[in-house]
Amino acid sequence: MLVTVGLLVYRLPSTVIKFCSGGPVATIFLCGFIAVITAFRVFVNGNPVVKLDAATVHHVRNTHLFSEILLMHYLLIICKKALFSFALAYVVSGLQFNTVFWLYFCLFGTYLTIADSLAWILYHNGRIILWVALVYLTSTVLLFLPSVFSAAALGLLIIGCLAYVCCFLKLDYAKYEEQLCYIDETMAATSRKDYAEMVRIVEENRPQTVSGVKLFMFPLRRNTVFIYKSLIEILRSHRQIWIFLALLFALGVVIVNTRILSFLSLGEDHLMSTIVATYCIVTVAITAYEIPAKQYRTLLDKRALGLFIPLSKERILLQHLIPHLILNGPFAVLISVCFSKMSIYTVALWMILCIACTGIVWSKTLTSRKSNAVRLVLTILLITTIFTYVELL
Amino acid sequence: MYFCVSNLSYAYKKTRVLHNVSFCGSKGETIGLIGANGAGKTTVIKNITGYLTPSTGKITLNGTDIGSIKDTDFPISYIPDTPVFYEELSLLEHLHLTKALYPSNKREIAELLVLFELEEHIHKIPSALSKGTRQKLMIAMALLRSYTMLLADEPFSGLDPKQIALLKHLFAQHKKQNKLVILSTHLLDVAENMCDRYVLLHKGAVLADGTKTELAEKAGIANDASMESIYLELVNNLA
Question: Which residue of A has its CA nearest to B120?
Fold first, then answer.
């Protein structure tokens, strides 16, 4: 990480000079990045676009005032998007106010506003997801075909979205108010740094029943029960963390396989790209291994507190690790495929990933100082391995 | 004696919590560990389960030091005062997990679900359960283990009168199965007539140990007096 920061600082002056000279940015990557973030905003992130106080919604929702408040917030969001689009277009045009700037300003502004409208529509009416997906895809295609026609078409789409929001969309008040209450409570607990309250809020808002695959669907034996429990924990873990890790991994792959960093004057420096990609992939691996490590520590604590387990620590560790060690196989293959390095060395990579995973989970049984030392050694091992694998082999 | 606690002392940092606590129990007995809040009941139990390590003294089971018994052979089941669960597993999954770990216990999950009236909650996660239901699940899990000795720390907490009666009945069955039960509680009226012997703890030390009749004699009051009267009299005598 220090090397990365050092190289970035070293490269910064030349990057600024390049910007000042009006060098154009690789816009296709920027558009791709915006499209991915927008897709997350519309289809995955379940938060409302317009965030009001829960009390405001409760007290004024049946009055004329409520429409005015919503309209004001909506205009504020459009202003924010306009400012953001202004900055993006300025970068894309090479810090110049030319035709390219105005074209991209219109494209980004309308695209981001459409995305917010779609997120708002989908939040209140999940049944029209196919229509929303169609509009999203159309607007994304138009974003990738920069022209006056595309900007005009996006303009028409935004009029259509706003017309639907104003005339046809029925707000789901129950869901909206409940979620705003949750946001208010969370914000209040965060501002007070009341961690106990935060944990209570999170626990209360978890799904109250389990669905899908259940533990007792597997052939449970004393020597296999924690393998399946570990598997169930993976399946039931928060999807946001996996999405974040997938995006980080994708970023690492894109950095090495494309010239996405060219606008930072780094693309020509292949070594720099590999370092950044290594950092991304190692972060993905360590964050993913933290999940079983934390679960194993919790398991040992609960075992001591009364959930007696008639197995030794080592047996529990082994059972707990098996699904994660197996999943390291596809992870090693994925790294190999994405960096075009599929060979016998993939097996070696898998073995080193397994050693790192086992070590990180096992380190949870050690004292804090020893645990940190083990984790440092394993992090260095992972960095060396991934860097060698991607750059040298 | 099957189980013996000898001169057990325990200190949290510099604060001494237990002072030379000694008592023994045989198979088929139900022993009441009685005392006010803070008397040291839970600390004694946590020393027995191995969660805490005694400062001095010894705890033996069938002549073997309890600390040297392997996890795989640990013949004790435990109902903790604060229920402990795997937060991501449902009620039914908890029972199946415990059953898988102790295949030699012939008790059926379906039987326990009916007994504790848990059927409607089987797919709920622990944080979605009421206090009483969580306690019932903890008891059901304890009963699914293979054990010769059951430690129950405030097991009646959160239970309704019907469930309390059921639990008393289950404890009585343990006597027939020749299992030792150590019941820690401060609810003297509930524990009364359930236990063969009582160990009265007061400020971390054993105030008295014996049957209800023996304790009444020691307190100098009539044999038919309630456990509450006996306990209060013994504490007052000490003052």
Answer: A209
